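Handoff note, outgoing to incoming analyst
You'll be picking up this chain. Sequence as last confirmed:
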Amino acid sequence: MGAIFTAYKNRTPLVITAGQQARSILPTEPFLFSMQATELPKPYVKWSNEPARAQDVPAAVARAYYLAMQPPCGPTFVSIPVDDWDRQTERVLSRQVSTALRGDPSLLAVLGDSLDRSACPAFVVGSAVDRDGAWDLAIQLAERYSAHVWVSPNSGRCSFPESHPLFAGFLPASKEGVAEHLEGYDLVLALGAPLFTYHTEGFGPFLSPGIQLFQLIDDPDVASWLPIGTSIVTSLHHGIADLLDRIPPPSRPRPEARRKPRRAEPSATITVPYLMQTLAEIRPSESIIVEEAPSSRSAMQAYLPINRSDGFYTCSSGGLGHGVPAAVGVALGKPQHKVIALIGDGSSMYCIQGLWTAGQLGLPITFVVVRNGRYQALEEFGPHFGLAQTLGTKLPTIDFVALAAGHGIDGCQVHRADVLEGVLRKAIAAEKPILVEVTVS
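Most recent structure output, in case you need it:
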């Protein structure tokens, strides 16, 4: 259920099938049956069905596929009684079903006019830009308007090159934080982003008075709950392209570029910034980062910039257990690219058996376990709720190299900064899955 929720939040086009007991014994509530199979995954699937007849199963799977692929993408569910597999059915022919939306031309014209008049615009990009193949278009639009580009809170993808001069940084998941970071702009355009995604309760205005807010989004639900501003429901590729089709405004000076962080220097122990900086310097430029290390994310965002489309994946739901199996899935879907999985030691324990799958399939993934010996995100968050002490959050004796060996893959441990680069280079160059356990200060 947690994985379904993550697929829902990540807008993953996914058809889920689940077994159901034989139809003939369903009236007597048999062992291992689902009493309300179609209700179980709700509300985190777009459609849920248990066909009335065995003959209807293929058509149900086809409908589930077409719905999963419709914007906004998401999981669908089909429950299939076990004896249905033995029935003969008619072939279901494949069809063409469109998967794109076009925004309201009149509202796009209002947005375009407002952008032309804006003296200091900012863009906030979310996962839908990368998901819809609008990466290059977003860069063109930002450069046309000399707009600072921020990343929406908890975005599951990278939708703008983080080394670009117009890249401004990452918005925090707090009401006051979003408003503070967007202070001083006269127009904010959210591209494929819900924008107001908060982790804790906050107070005050959503944005400072006088800021115009527009949103391009492929999700009508998100458009409906945006508390302020104008939402235009559109596929991001089409929406941005329509804006770029307008006559360009006069060129304007670019805003001040984001300051680069001070270089992380090696020390007796390995710091998380030094680990991320080392990875940034040695990894192949076309490699893909799959991340589930919440307490290390700020260091990753500072020292490990993502600069290409499809170069980064993480979990948008906040549920742990996504990273290891997600790395396996990305490696299967993109075999031409090296996959580097950055996983916290606490996060890894939710789905460590994904290592076995990587080993069985021989996927050349480099699993980097960032070991701080605890569920650090929980310990850091405890004081927010007045907890002086958090119990059960320490992980002092887990041997991840032994866990890797037990799942059939090689592993090694690193404790010293002076050998970190060499170990990582060797692991990334390998043509098989390897786990590198990095003890950080």
